């Protein structure tokens, strides 16, 4: 069974700044490697990338582009384990003849 790992916005030393999730660099179902950039976040002072905490498959996106996020907020989840890819696969429809 695949285990879900939370992707969190790291806590920042910059209190009082607003963080906005700018862009996801991966889509649901994409394979990710540990420490690979997943998302771009910006504040009024800095832009940064949030990296994958573990290798696996991007399972859930909880915060969409353009939304404000708080430090330590869960922004998505990665499925890790042998059957992670099987859980996120999408059935392919074959055209009828």
Overall morphology: elongated
Task: Note the beta-strand portion.
Answer: 35-45%
Work out the helicity level: under 10%
Structural class: mainly beta
Number of helices: 1
Adjacency order of strands in the biggest sheet: 1-8-6-3
The average pLDDT score comes to: 84
Low-confidence stretches: 86-95
Report how far the terminal alpha carbons are from each other: 37 Å
List keywords for this structure.
97 residues; mainly beta; four-stranded antiparallel beta sheet; 41% strand
In short:
This protein is mainly beta and 97 residues long.
Can you describe this structure?
With 97 residues, this protein is mainly β. It is 5% helix and 41% strand. The chain contains one helix and eight strands. It has one helix spanning 84-88; strands at 3-8, 19-24, 31-32, 37-42, 47-51, 56-61, 68-69, 74-80. A four-stranded antiparallel β-sheet has the order 1-8-6-3. A hairpin with a 4-residue loop joins β4 and β5. It is elongated. The termini are far apart. Residues 86-95 have low confidence and may be disordered.
Give the SSE map.
Blueprint: E1 3-8, E2 19-24, E3 31-32, E4 37-42, E5 47-51, E6 56-61, E7 68-69, E8 74-80, H1 84-88
């Amino acid at each position: 069974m695949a285990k879900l790992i939370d992707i969190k916005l790291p806590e920042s030393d910059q209190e009082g700044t607003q963080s906005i999730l700018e862009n996801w660099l991966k889509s649901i179902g994409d394979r990710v490697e540990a420490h690979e950039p997943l998302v771009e976040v910006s504040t009024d002072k800095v832009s940064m990338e949030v990296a994958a905490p573990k290798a696996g498959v991007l399972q859930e996106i909880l915060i969409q582009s353009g939304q404000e996020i708080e430090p330590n907020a869960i922004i998505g989840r990665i499925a890790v384990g042998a059957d992670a890819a099987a859980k996120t696969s999408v059935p392919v429809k074959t055209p009828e003849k």
